[in-house]
Amino acid sequence: MRRGRASRRGMLRGLLAAAFIVTSLAAPSRAAESHRLALQISDDDPVKMRAVLDVAANVSRHYSGQGEDVEIVVVAFNGGLDMLLEDRSPVKERLVNFLKSMPNVSFVACGNTLETLTAKEGKRPPLIEGISVTQVGVAMLMELAEKSWTIVRP
Q1: N or C: which end of the chain has fewer CB within 10 A?
Q2: Which pTM was predicted?
């Protein structure tokens, strides 16, 4: 009977050791993957625009502090596009600082919303330098979600 218990203990120890090794080997590959976050801004509310920037800064600091990579993209459409416009962004100064100091955070404007504003205003509103454009902001968010990005609307 004692021999059976000792044999089971030995087998259990072996299984635990194997599980530990497999977990240890798998952990670095998971840590090597970059975290990916897409933030949606679709409201022309300066409070929500500041919240988007706060979330981006906090998430970036969190993962950088852990020695991990994080890629963040802010996608603006509808009223949220004002955040990225040179002539009317209520968060322009802070956004420009992001573009200079946080290379892991990018900003994307919806081309459809830009076209709507162009037709309404008679000219295309200027974007803050460093902002990219996608044809359809919502479609970009969908595609990012399909690629396992986390989508958040603060």
Answers
A1: N
A2: 0.79
